[in-house]
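Q: Is it fine to ask for two folds in a single conversation?
A: Yes, each is treated on its own. Send the first.
Q: Here.
A: Result:
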Amino acid sequence: MPPFHELDKLCVRIDKVAYLPELEAPRDRPYPYVYFITIENHTNETITIKGRKWVVTDEKGNRTVVEGDGVVGKFPKLKPGASFSYNSYHAVGCDSVAEGAFIGVNEAGEAVIARIPPFAMKVPR
């Protein structure tokens, strides 16, 4: 089993982070990054992802909090052993680190939290 797995947990893996200057970005945050993420269900229960919370902290200490329902407009229902992969993007103005959590529920309606490991978005020099 790969080293990122935690048995009996809902796990998040950052597959790739890439700077893509050709993407649209606002003037105050001109550096767009695409990130590829996989959510894996290592529990013995079906879990539906209901929302997410991201915190992006830049090198100056400024924080941006992003919360919302689902994941990229979907509410993935992950059976035991299943995974869901997606990509999205975020634009930054200086070196930044993103982290957060996905919030899911099991079939009994109990909350299940999966931490999103921190990943860096370093501005090209």
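Q: Second one now.
A: Result:
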Amino acid sequence: MSNRISLRQVEPEAINALVTFDKYLQAAQLTNIQKELIKIRASQINGCAYCINVHTKDARKYGETEQRIYLLNAWRETDFFTEEEQCLLALTEEITLISKHGVSNETYDRATKVFTENQIAQIIMAVISINAWNRIGIATRMKPALDSK
């Protein structure tokens, strides 16, 4: 499997627009761990190996544990994630898979109990951002580099 076009080379303005969008998200009220959980979980759902690789490394830099990263795709089956994180992950999954069932009232209402409106808006925007990056990564066949030991 070979790489395809580089959007950064072919359409730099489009990539710069997404980078600017991500700069807005850097200032969001969400913690770095929350942002990385969104990015990892959406990337797992979408099957973007490049983004999973980048964001699991970033999460570890911010203090996330290996165990929680390993269990992220089965977060409902553990008690390792806080109520806030569970709401965040449920929203991430439903927004990422929005064509299946939309975002349920149950998930949204649960989120309103632990997040402010601004935080919910920021979660939605963070999920939109990583889904855009996932689609770029998959469509252009971006591959993670193997870490040397």
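Q: Anything structural to flag on that second result?
A: Two points. The mean pLDDT is 95. The chain has one domain: 11-139.
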